[in-house]
Design brief:
mainly alpha; Growth Hormone, Chain: A; Na+/melibiose symporter; membrane; MFS_trans_sf; MFS_2
Amino acid sequence: MSEAVTKNDGINRAKLYQLVLFPLNNGATNVYYVLVLAYIATFGSNVLGLGVLFASVMVTGMRVFDAFTDPVIGALMDRTNGKFGKFRPFMVIGNVIMALSIITMYIITPKIPETMMALRYVAFVGLYAIWVIGYTFQTSCTRAGQTVLTSDPGQRPLFTIFNTVGSLAGMGVMQFLAPIIRANVADYSSADFYKVLTPVGIIVSIVLTILAIIGIWEKDQPKYFGIGGSKQEKVKISEYVEIIKNNSPMKRLMIAGAGCKLALSIATNTTVLCMLYGSMMGNYDGLYLPMMIVGYVFSVPFFVLTVRTSQKKGQRASLLRYVSLALVCYVGVLALLLAWKQGVPGVNLSLISNGKLSINIYTVLFLVFFGVGYGAYYSTADMPIPMVADCSDYETYRSGKYIPGIMGTLFSLVDKLVSSLSATVVGIAVSLIGIKSLPTADTPYSSGMNVVVIILFCVVPMVAWIATIIAMKGYILTGEKMKEIQEVNQRRKEAIAAGMSLQQAMEEL
């Protein structure tokens, strides 16, 4: 491996430990993906007593705020080049902001008396807004930092698998611990649940952030910043509109990323899973963790397959292939949920009954369709993240501008929009069938729940995958095209280092 990363052909390559550690930054932010986005609406509705629609819709409404903050933070990142580099300061500051805001949100705000409900509303909105800023600071570094980590088209697909491992180190740990805390401490609707989960999540996120900083430490310096290095031209916020307008691959990737993220966000939403495994199937504790483990087990071979496909045919081909497979498999999941009947053993999920293994044909078919489908789409859910680096390199190739910050925050905006949109969609869907508060694991089945689950667990993700496939059909950054772009960028970089101006290098090379 050491020879592969040090051969002198002008290509910037990462060392193995850097490829492994830096993606843990995504794991650090994904801790909050679970801690906040999976539970914020339930916390607001059931713990603080806020209106169920308010708690859900506010999370999406805050994207208007993001529309102003994201470009500003992206501009700051692109202009930053201090003693501690371009990306490390944003990782540290972002993590601190998130930790402080969520400690205050989950542990202190429940102490506000019910007689001061207006203050609860204000605190809820204000603290969430502060958290959003911190989340943007850190999560945009995952996208932007890849541009300095490696420019090797053969290494970038590896970022996907290590990014997924990093995501599991954050999101997976939280998803695993949450139901255990619920079963042994308190339910999701209790303030005690959040008092325990919050410090655990923050500690996990801090550890992952420190490891990620170690991973990018050596690369976070001017010689890896685009083709101009420390001579890089400053980009004004007003120029970003032109950049977005002319960077077609980035626009298509934003649509694809939104599709993949929306599918994951809604299908894994805590409320949706409570209705599916608890209210419909009647055994949340016996199904949630086993089904989550099944999904992760099926994901493992797909992680390997997506990397191999990406290295041979490019990341576009890999994304198209496995999203299409997920779409086909979820047709089977949809058919099974349509066949479900309340209280009928043969058409219900059954894994353990009276302490013994109890599996029927319905469960076997569900495990196969869900397992393969989940494995395929989970392995592609984060694939657009390393593709952001390709779009950033394309922008350098197209205009000569090195703007990983704005590219990262653009994608971060889409990421947060669809993630928070999931809470709103779920909240509206639940309210339409007359439920006053978001269902938990112990909520009994009520009429219409099966329709809500079918739409949210299957139909919405399938529509999102169709949008992803359509967007990727016109994506021009194939494996061969990226090799060409890297070669041209490298020649221009060498020419500029030798004294040629950026404008001359763009015109002649």
